[in-house]
UniProtKB/TrEMBL annotation:
One of its GO terms (molecular function) is oxidoreductase activity. It comes from Amycolatopsis echigonensis. The keyword Oxidoreductase applies. The keyword Lipoprotein does not apply. This is NADP-dependent 3-hydroxy acid dehydrogenase YdfG. Belongs to the short-chain dehydrogenases/reductases (SDR) family. PROSITE patterns: ADH_SHORT. Keywords: Oxidoreductase.
Length: 245
C-alpha cells in the first residue's frame, strides 16, 4: 500500500480534505489539488506523503501540469478521486449564463479533463491500469429546488462515469461513482437552519459524519482492478431523498 499513489481534487476543504486524509492514513502518496495553496497545505500538515499541487480543474493547462507533476514525482498513478465542484444556486429562469458556465466548467469539464489526463497516465505506465472515483452527489439522481446547473452537471457525471468505465477496459482502468447526501462539512452547516424543499417549505435536514464517506472511498479504492463498485450511494438515513417531492 505504501507504493500506491493518488490524486484528490478539491482537497483543500470539505469532503476532499477528509478523503485525502483517509488515503494518507492508509499509506497512499497523495497529490492534493485545489485552487488555494494555503488550504492544501493545511490538509497536508506534516505528512511527507502529501504533495501540494495548486491547480484549477477548469483550466486544461493547469490540469496537464498537475498530472505531469505526478508523473515526474512518482512515475505512476493508481487512483484519481474526482471531487472538485461548485454549487451555484438558481432556477432555470434566473440563473446567469456566467454561473451556468462556471458550474459546467468545474463540475463536468473539470472532471473530464482530470479523467483524461489520469487515463493517459494509467494507460502508459507499467503495470498498466488504475482507478477513478467520481463524486456524483445525490443530485445525480434528483434535484433540489433552484439547482439547475448543479443538477445538470451531476446527472452528466453519471454518463461520464459510465463512458470512462467502458473505454477504460482497454487499459485496465476501473471507474466508479459515489453519490453523497448530507455529509457533515462546512457546506452542509446551513441544513440545520432549514433549506428549501420541493413543496416550498423550509426544513432542517439531518447530516451524517463525513468520515463514513472517506471510509466508503477507501473501500472502493482498495478493491483489485478486476472488481469495481460502479455506483455507491451514501446518505443520512432520514434525509428527504427517498420520496423526495
Amino acid at each position: 500500500m505504501s507504493e500506491k499513489t493518488a490524486v484528490v481534487t478539491g482537497a483543500g476543504s470539505g469532503l476532499g480534505r477528509r478523503i485525502a486524509g483517509a488515503l494518507l492514513g492508509a499509506g497512499y502518496r497523495v497529490a492534493l489539488a485545489g485552487r488555494r495553496e494555503d488550504a492544501l497545505r493545511e490538509t497536508a500538515g506534516s505528512d511527507t506523503n502529501a504533495l501540494v499541487v495548486p491547480a484549477d480543474v477548469a483550466d486544461p493547462a493547469s490540469v496537464e501540469a498537475l498530472f505531469s507533476t505526478v508523473r515526474s514525482e512518482w512515475g505512476r498513478l493508481d487512483l484519481l478521486v474526482n471531487n472538485a465542484g461548485v454549487s451555484l444556486g438558481g432556477t432555470v429562469a434566473d440563473l446567469s449564463v456566467e454561473d451556468w458556465r462556471r458550474t459546467v466548467d468545474t463540475n463536468l469539464t473539470g472532471m473530464f479533463l482530470c479523467a483524461q489526463q489520469a487515463v493517459r497516465l494509467m494507460r502508459d505506465q507499467e503495470p498498466q491500469g488504475g482507478r477513478i472515483i467520481n463524486n456524483g452527489s445525490i443530485s445525480a439522481h434528483a434535484p433540489r429546488p433552484a439547482s439547475v446547473a448543479y443538477t445538470a452537471t451531476k446527472h452528466a457525471v453519471t454518463g461520464l462515469t459510465r463512458s470512462i468505465s467502458l473505454d477504460g477496459r482497454a487499459w485496465n482502468v476501473a471507474c466508479g461513482q459515489i453519490d453523497i447526501g448530507n455529509a457533515a462539512t462546512e457546506m452542509t452547516e446551513r441544513m440545520a437552519a432549514g433549506i428549501p424543499q420541493a413543496d416550498g417549505r423550509l426544513m432542517a435536514e439531518p447530516t451524517f459524519d463525513a468520515a463514513h464517506v472517506a471510509d466508503a472511498v477507501l473501500y472502493m479504492a482498495g478493491l483489485p482492478l478486476d472488481a469495481n463498485v460502479q455506483f455507491l450511494t451514501i446518505t443520512a438515513t432520514t434525509m428527504p431523498f427517498i420520496g423526495r417531492g
